Amino acid sequence: MNVIDKKEEHLLELFSKNMIQDRIKELAEKINNEFDKNEELYVIGVLRGSVLFVADLVRHLKMPVQIEFIRLSSYGDDQKSSGKVKSVDLSLPNLADKNVLIVEDIVDTGLTAHFLIDYIKEQHNARQVKFASLLDKVCARIHPVNIDYIGFEVDDKFVVGYGLDYQGYYRNLPYIGYFPQ
Ligand code: IMP
Q1: How many angstroms separate the CA atoms of 131 and 17, rounded?
Q2: This prediction's pTM
Q3: Probe target for ligand 1 pocket from 106, 157, 167, 171, with the most ligand atoms within 8 Å of CB
Q4: Which of 39, 60, 146, 154 is the most exposed place for a label (fewest CB within 10 A)?
């Protein structure tokens, strides 16, 4: 049996299900206005944290959409970034001359975002690469990155829910919260 030291009843809610869904609609509207409606958009989600965000966001997009996922990790089981991006699966179709939207759950130190934006721009020669993150932990930034679409800013808390995990748990929660210290 798995033992988890943090229980859901102790979680304090930061962003409710409705707040998240309303904000995603706003972000999608911006994305619909900023990309050509007649050109396909490759939405590239970063596993596993962005799964719920990607699933809800793409339902509001109006252009022809292709969905891809890549798998990276910089955290392991810890609550602190290891400082290195581990590429677990970076396989992608040919993105030359395509419009690309990279979708992350949270930008923390910026290491993952920085690596990914460079990788897609340089290795794939995409026409346009934009970056969306549901959360921006701006106070933790070490590697500066330009985020085109931000859901919410968070301060220096370890947050879980709506794709974000603690030791693999809580990704399924429809809201985002944190454990008080
Ligand atoms: P970065 O490379 O340091 O910006 O970290 C990005 C990744 O770290 C995210 O995609 C998350 O998987 C993970 N992460 C960062 N902060 C949190 C958090 O507060 N809760 C859960 N995961 C987090």
Answers
A1: 23
A2: 0.93
A3: 106
A4: 146
